[in-house]
Amino acid sequence: GASAISCLTDATYFGARPGDLEHAASAGLPVLRKDFVIDEIQIDESVAMGASAVLLIVRILEPPRLAALVRHSAAHGLDALVEVHDESEIDQALDAGATMVGVNNRDLGTLAVDSGRALRLKARIPAGVLSVAESGVKTRDDVKLIEDAGFSAVLIGETLARSSDPAAKLRELLGRAHGGRS
């Protein structure tokens, strides 16, 4: 039931293995390289790996660098999911040319999750910009709140990674627990 796959590629910090992204891309869905992208070479690598999109985190990139990476991604046929955590970061993302903004409910400094952050910030994302709620999604009710807020998509990672049956958990989160459509 997934619309896309988010794939970590860093071995040191996330335990990824060579070929993980290529394997994910073989599923036939768009694949987000979810990593700390800070340089054009990583975007070039992402293309070679078969990624459809890269993650650019406003908090770790100066505005000129962010804008350059958004442009480089687009020039190489990749979407850029520009991740934000507050109002000023939304402004920076939009100023950099972001067409897809993800609001991460997880604070990168403390790793604490504020499940309401995305809901509070949604109104700051203009119509025409694809909006993604990230992190802290554990239940169908969480997904419903995100849907009702008007988000275009939800990025679910930890809940699926910790599940003994990720496919069944995803169906549950999407309201398709028994394989039917909702």
Task: Report what the structure shows.
The protein is of the alpha/beta class and 182 residues long. The chain is built from nine helices and seven strands; from the N terminus they run βααβαβαβαβαβαβαα. Strand 3, helix 4 and strand 4 form a beta-alpha-beta unit. It is globular.
User: Please, how many helices?
Assistant: 9
Strand segment count: 7
Global structural class: alpha/beta
Q: What profile does the largest beta sheet have? A: 7 strands, parallel
Helicity range of the residues? 25-40%
Strand order of the largest sheet: 1-2-3-4-5-6-7
**Beginning-to-end CA distance, first to last residue:** 12 Å
Gyration radius over CA? 16 Å
Helix and strand run: EHHEHEHEHEHEHEHH
DSSP strand content: 15-25%
Spans where pLDDT lies below 50 across 5 or more residues: none
Mean pLDDT over the full residue set: 93
Shape: globular
What's the helix and strand layout?
Elements: E1 5-7, H1 11-14, H2 20-25, E2 31-33, H3 40-49, E3 53-57, H4 63-75, E4 79-84, H5 87-95, E5 100-104, H6 117-121, E6 130-134, H7 140-149, E7 153-155, H8 158-161, H9 166-173
Provide a quick synopsis of the model.
The chain is an alpha/beta fold and 182 residues long.
Give keywords.
182 residues, alpha/beta, 7-stranded parallel beta sheet, 9 helices
